[in-house]
From TrEMBL:
The lineage of its organism: Bacteria, Pseudomonadati, Bacteroidota, Cytophagia, Cytophagales. GO terms for molecular function: 2 iron, 2 sulfur cluster binding; metal ion binding; oxidoreductase activity. Gene3D superfamilies: 3.10.20.30, [2Fe-2S]-binding domain. InterPro entries: 2Fe-2S-bd, 2Fe-2S-bd_dom_sf, 2Fe-2S_ferredoxin-like_sf, 2Fe-2S_ferredoxin-type, Beta-grasp_dom_sf, Diverse_Oxidoreductases. Keywords: 2Fe-2S, Iron, Iron-sulfur, Metal-binding. This is (2Fe-2S)-binding protein. Pfam families: Fer2, Fer2_2. Residues 3-80 form the 2Fe-2S ferredoxin-type domain. PANTHER family: BLR6046 PROTEIN, OXIDOREDUCTASE WITH IRON-SULFUR SUBUNIT.
Amino acid sequence: MDANLTLLVNGKQHTLRLDPATPLLYVLRNDLALNGPKFGCGLQQCGACMVLLDDVAWPSCQLPVHQVTGGVAITTLEGLAAPDGTLHPVQAAFVQEQAAQCGFCLNGMVMSAVSLLRQYPKPDEAAIRNGLFRVLCRCSVQARAIKAVQRAAGV
């Protein structure tokens, strides 16, 4: 049964008529045309669908949309850059370190890194590896991703 649900996505409120059990990822991509989060495994295991929920990285592919209503701040990759287009420091560091190859894991890597740095502004390499562990990368850019997070953290 559909219901009117209000979501706070990238700083803007959206009221949509949805089935409350619809996965957040589907709403972001299909209803709001936000394509940063990707559908990967559909099992919350690859990280391609990562978003920030109140600054905590969380996979969105199985998360029912009704669980993120009521003021939860949802941030997607598109919501990181400044309104003038200036990249978020993590995004800029990933560009500078060329920390993307195929790009499929990029959303999860960036969103996980942003969450990590908000919790631990100066992480060591072990903390960075732990912060990115939920993101599956098949083309082996992990070393460059670690360097990008270090660059963004200034360590």
